[in-house]
Design brief:
This protein has helices at residues 9-13, 31-41, 46-49, 53-58, 91-98, 194-201, and strands at 19-24, 103-113, 124-132, 136-137, 142-153, 159-171, 206-210, 216-217, 232-236, 240-249, 261-268, 273-278, 291-298, 304-310. By secondary structure, the protein is α+β, with helices and mostly antiparallel strands. It has two domains: 9-24 and 76-171, Hotdog Thioesterase (Thiol Ester Dehydrase, Chain A, Roll); 194-310, OB fold (Dihydrolipoamide Acetyltransferase, E2P) (Beta Barrel), CATH 2.40.50. The relative contact order is 0.11. Residues 197-229 form the ChsH2 rubredoxin-like zinc ribbon domain.
Length: 314
C-alpha cells in the first residue's frame, strides 16, 4: 500500500538498530521458579526437576531454555532493579500511536538458545527495533508490523539467547453501529394467540381457522363466532390486502413507536381483517383501498410485529 502522507515514518525508522538497555533481572536462576514454571506448563523432564540430572551433565541445576524471558520480567509494578537502563525501548510504538494507530496485538515470538542457564546465574538483556514494515491492511485493521530483537547476556557479557518479538500496531476500521431495535410494549400472549406471535418470528402471518366450518377469524379466540365450535388450527396467509380503514394516533405516545403513528385496518386477500401499523406512508395522505403487503418488524426482546407497507413503494 502507498505510504503517501506517512512522512512521519522517517522518524520511527530512524530508531531501527538503536540499542536500549542494559536491563537486569531481579533474581538469579533458581529451582523454586523452575519447579513452579514446569508445573504450570506441564513439563516433567527430570533434567530440570530431580536435582541430579542437571548436575551430572552440567555441574549445576539448569532451567528450561524456554524460560529465557521469565528471568528478566519487570513484575507487576513494571520496574527493574537499580542499575538497569531507564531509556524507553517503546519509542517507535509511541510514534506510530501518536499518528493514529492506537491498537496493538502480538503476532509471534521466536527464541534462540545458545546454552542452558544454570542455577545461580543472573542475566540481563538489551533490545533494539529490528524493522518497521510498510503500511499493511489486515482483517484487524491498517497499520505496521514492528519487530523487536532482545539479546540476553550472562554476567560475563556473553550472549546466551535471543528473542524476536513481533507486534502489529494498527488502526481498527470504523464499524457501523447496528441500528438499535425499537423497544415496544410486549403483547399479551395466551394459548389462544401463541401461534400468531410464534409465526411472526418465522416471518409468517398466520390466521386462526375453525376446523369445523373453515371460517378464518382474527383476533384469535377460543370459539368460532359462526358455528361456535371450539376446534381450530391456523393457516399461513398471503399477507396481501388493502387499507379498509385507518387512524393516525398522536396520543398517547408509546416507547419505540413513531409519532404520529398511522394504524391501518387491513382487509386481507383471504377476507379477514387485521389491525397493524402502516409504514412508508405519509400520515396526511393515506388512501383507503390502497394495496398493501405485510412486513415483519423485529423489535427488542425478540418481539416481531406485523406492519403493512404500500405495494410498489411509498
Amino acid at each position: 500500500m502507498s505510504e503517501q502522507n506517512l512522512s512521519w515514518l522517517d522518524e520511527a525508522r530512524a530508531l531501527i538498530g538503536h540499542e536500549y538497555g542494559k536491563v537486569y533481572a531481579w533474581d538469579a536462576v533458581n529451582q523454586p521458579m523452575v519447579r513452579q514454571w514446569c508445573e504450570a506448563m506441564g513439563v516433567d523432564n527430570p533434567l530440570y526437576l530431580d536435582g541430579v540430572s542437571g548436575k551430572a551433565r552440567f555441574g549445576a541445576n539448569v532451567a528450561p531454555p524456554t524460560m529465557l524471558q521469565v528471568w528478566v520480567l519487570a513484575g507487576l509494578k513494571d520496574r527493574f532493579p537499580e542499575g538497569s537502563a531507564t531509556d524507553n525501548p517503546y519509542e517507535v510504538l509511541q510514534i506510530i500511536e501518536r499518528n493514529g494507530y492506537p491498537s496493538v496485538v502480538a503476532v509471534n515470538s521466536e527464541q534462540r538458545y545458545l546454552r542452558y542457564l544454570k542455577e545461580g546465574e543472573k542475566i540481563a538483556f538489551t533490545s533494539q527495533i529490528e524493522s518497521v514494515s510498510e503500511q499493511k491492511t489486515t482483517g484487524l485493521g491498517t497499520g505496521f508490523f514492528v519487530t523487536q530483537l532482545l539479546n540476553f547476556y550472562d554476567e560475563a557479557d556473553a550472549l546466551v539467547g535471543q528473542m524476536r518479538f513481533r507486534l502489529f500496531k494498527f488502526r481498527a476500521p470504523e464499524r457501523v453501529k447496528p441500528a438499535e431495535k425499537p423497544r415496544r410494549p410486549l403483547p399479551g400472549v395466551s394459548d389462544d394467540n401463541r401461534f400468531f406471535w410464534d409465526g411472526l418470528k418465522e416471518r409468517k402471518l398466520k390466521i386462526q381457522r375453525c376446523t369445523a366450518c373453515n371460517t378464518l377469524r382474527h383476533p384469535p379466540g377460543p370459539a368460532c363466532p359462526d358455528c361456535h365450535s371450539l376446534a381450530s388450527d391456523s393457516v399461513e396467509v398471503s399477507g396481501r390486502g388493502r387499507i379498509y380503514s385507518y387512524s393516525v394516533v398522536h396520543h398517547p405516545t408509546l416507547p419505540g413507536v413513531p409519532q404520529p403513528n398511522p394504524v391501518g385496518l387491513i382487509e386481507l386477500a383471504e377476507g379477514v381483517r387485521v389491525v397493524a401499523g402502516l409504514v412508508d406512508v405519509d400520515p396526511a395522505h393515506i388512501e383507503i383501498g390502497r394495496e398493501v403487503e405485510v412486513d415483519f418488524l423485529e423489535c427488542a426482546d425478540e418481539l416481531v410485529i406485523p406492519v403493512f407497507r404500500p405495494v410498489g413503494g411509498a
